[in-house]
Amino acid sequence: MARREHSRYELEQKLAGRELEPVEIATALDALAQAGYQDDQRFAEAYVRYRGRSGFGPRRVAQELQQRGVDQALARQALTTQELDWFELAGDVQYKKFRGAPTSFAERARQTRFLQYRGFDGEHIRYALENAAGDENN
What we know:
Layout: H1 8-16, H2 22-35, H3 40-53, H4 58-67, H5 72-81, H6 86-98, H7 105-117, H8 122-137
């Protein structure tokens, strides 16, 4: 059975639901971290790989990491150290969804909104749309 990594915050929430004392929870989580079973840095790196491969951009992934209680510095580090090319990923997501370059201003706006929703920055979106336009001309 495959298990996924959990952030410290996620584990705190799960254990709090079992009506344990906060001191007991903190002690247990400290022991897990000390033994190397729980590590927020490892969680962040695994999460970035997973969500990036699922077609989500760095802004969305960073927001989700924040919701999972990961420190912003750890999240930033995980987003930059992963071997993901966010530009290429934005292009792949755009192609998978739309199969071509936008043919009108309204279509360009629709594709831009979709890529923004997926968490890509403006420069990633510009690259994806310009690259899609370049593909159609070949």
